[in-house]
Amino acid sequence: MNRILLLIIVLVAAGCSQYRPTEARLEITKDKFKKNHELVQGDFKEVDLKQKMSGVSLGGARNIGEFFDRRLIFYKVDYPAMTIGRSSVEELVFYFMDSSLVKLRYKVKGDVSDFLLDSLGLSKFKPLDEYSMQQLDSGSIVERYGGYYELNKNLKNYELVWREGDTVSRFRVSNRTTDSLMTCFFYHEIDGYDSKIREMERLYTAVDRNAYID
Prior knowledge:
Blueprint: E1 26-27, E2 62-67, E3 72-78, E4 83-84, E5 87-97, E6 100-108, H1 113-120, E7 124-127, H2 130-138, E8 142-145, E9 148-151, E10 158-164, E11 167-175, E12 182-190, H3 193-210
Antiparallel strand pairs: 1-4, 2-3, 3-5, 4-5, 5-6, 6-12, 7-10, 8-9, 10-11, 11-12
Organism: Fulvivirga kasyanovii
Protein name: Lipoprotein
């Protein structure tokens, strides 16, 4: 199984030299990032995708939704005692499908793009606005300084994507145009998760359409 702590990926873009990434780190911290929020302690970094729900430590997590006859279940932890790089994780969501862990979503307090590039290696870049698309076309996405990479700081809406085997990791940064509020999410999921959800939706929609009262 792929352990997110040991996830080491190199996806080398055309024209870029080979790069050996350091080990990815999700660090546990005992510090309080917000005085008015008690951090939830737990073994959140010791989690494997495909792990059975019965084997996942969900202490401090709450059930936030069940769908399709409980085949799809979500649990959420607010303010887990965890950091990615130097940024605190504000929430962690567990996605279970048929009692197996298929996806993790981390809401990160700050932009950790450079840390992830250094830890996981070069990624696929997905532009989410016109400016990012223009920078991609001009090749002004990332610069290399010695042994580390730095993303263009003018980028506001984009996604970095890493793949390894049957897992996908994604880091998405979004800035609202109205007030420039930045939100950052890191996802670690089974490849094809979205298609599995759509397949489940089609199945249950078809069942509902054919259901009748005797």
